[in-house]
Every structure is written in structure tokens, then in C-alpha cells.
UniProtKB/TrEMBL annotation:
Gene Ontology BP annotations: regulation of DNA-templated transcription
Region Disordered, annotated ranges: 185-208
Species name: Sinosporangium album
Record field: transmembrane: none
Residue ranges of every copy of the DJ-1/PfpI domain listed in the record: 2-163
Protein name (record): DJ-1/PfpI family protein
Biased composition (Basic and acidic residues): 198-208
Length: 208
């Protein structure tokens, strides 16, 4: 299975690295980072750079695409090269997936019309603009389209996807190998459990 992960300026690193790591431990998967042209692409913190080794045109028909999100999504929504690549690739993929606000890019490429989908909680309602039905769930699978909620949910999606492709035994084996056994120190990772004042502060931080 050939995975292609598009990189654009100001992507969120964990959106990429989480699912990449989860699937990289499984046999039979290869990953190519793609962009408008081969070369370095820097994340939203300005400190981490990943290298795209191929252009969009060089990887027209991957088996799986994983579209990350991040602050750079705003500009990426106007990137015709990226959106057209997603649209064309989606016609041939076995799985079309996204993490966080990457789902907005799937929507802009026409891949979410009529489907249930998720994204980061702060932008969930924006999915309606693309004909999708927003769902406040960690991972949503509709046909061959899988969307994950904000940032850390990418690893959940990778294991869910792996179970569908290689079986639950393989997915559980990878989960054990990467020791994915989360025990968060606080119950503030969701708007359902975080104190209301914290949610408002988070909204302010995200909007800035």
C-alpha cells in the first residue's frame, strides 16, 4: 500500500507524524511526502522541517492519502495544485483520509459531500460549507473516507485504518509496539470535559 502525505507550509507536525508512525510499523506500507515541488516544508511552529521527496504530479495514484491540517490550512484552501491533486487522487484511492483541519481540504476538493465527517472541535461547523455532516467523534469512517478530529486523533485513525486493512491483530500489535496506552494527566482534552472557562481561553488562543 502506497501512502502519500501532502505537505504545505504551516502544517501541524503531529497531524503528519502520528499516522505516519502508526502505519510505518506495519508491513507492506510505504510513504511518500509530496508537495507542489520536492524540497523542505516547515511546520506551524517554524522549527520542524519535513522533506517532500516528490511533487503532486509524480504521485498521481497513491493507495492512501493522509491530509494533515494546521494553521496553514487557511492558505492551502486556495492552493489549486493541492486541491486538484486531492480530487484526482481520491478517484483512485483505496482510502482518502485527513487529520484535524485537513478535512476542510478534503471538503474543498469535493470529497465529503453528503458524508459524515469530523475535524478540530473549533472548526467543526465549517464542514457544512462543503456539504458534509459534522460529527463530534474521534474518528469517522464513511465508505473509503476517514476523518480524524484534532491533532492527536491522527494516531487513533491510523490504528483504525490498519485494522480495516490488515486486521485487528496487526493493529493491536502495532499499538503495543508503539506503546500507545494513553493516560492523560488531565480531563481537559475535549470540550465535553474541559471547564467552560478553559474552552473560552482555548478559543481565544486558536483565533489569535
Amino acid at each position: 500500500m502506497h501512502i502519500a502525505i501532502p505537505l504545505f507550509p504551516a502544517f501541524t507536525a503531529l497531524d503528519v507524524v502520528g499516522p505516519y508512525t502508526g502505519l510505518a510499523f506495519a508491513p507492506g506500507f510505504t510513504t511518500t511526502f509530496v508537495s507542489d515541488r520536492p524540497g523542505p516544508v516547515t511546520d506551524d511552529q517554524g522549527a520542524l522541517t519535513l522533506t517532500a521527496t516528490a511533487s503532486y504530479d509524480e504521485v498521481p495514484r497513491p493507495d492512501i492519502i493522509i491530509v494533515p491540517g494546521g494553521p496553514g490550512t487557511t492558505d492551502a484552501l486556495s492552493d489549486d495544485g493541492l486541491l486538484n491533486w486531492i480530487k484526482r487522487a481520491h478517484e483512485h484511492t483505496a482510502w482518502t483520509t485527513s487529520v484535524c483541519t485537513g478535512s476542510l481540504l478534503l471538503g474543498a476538493a469535493g470529497a465529503l459531500r453528503g458524508l459524515r465527517a469530523t475535524t478540530h472541535w473549533s472548526l467543526l461547523e465549517q464542514l457544512e460549507h462543503y456539504g458534509a455532516r459534522p460529527c463530534e467523534e474521534r474518528v469517522v469512517i464513511e465508505g473509503k473516507v476517514a476523518t480524524a478530529a484534532g491533532v492527536s486523533a491522527g494516531l487513533d485513525m491510523a490504528l483504525t485504518l490498519l485494522a480495516r486493512i490488515r486486521g485487528e491483530d496487526t493493529a493491536q500489535l502495532v499499538q503495543l509496539v508503539i506503546e500507545y496506552d494513553p493516560e492523560p494527566p488531565f480531563r481537559a482534552g475535549s470540550t465535553k470535559t474541559a471547564p467552560p472557562e478553559l474552552v473560552e481561553r482555548a478559543r481565544e488562543l486558536l483565533s489569535s
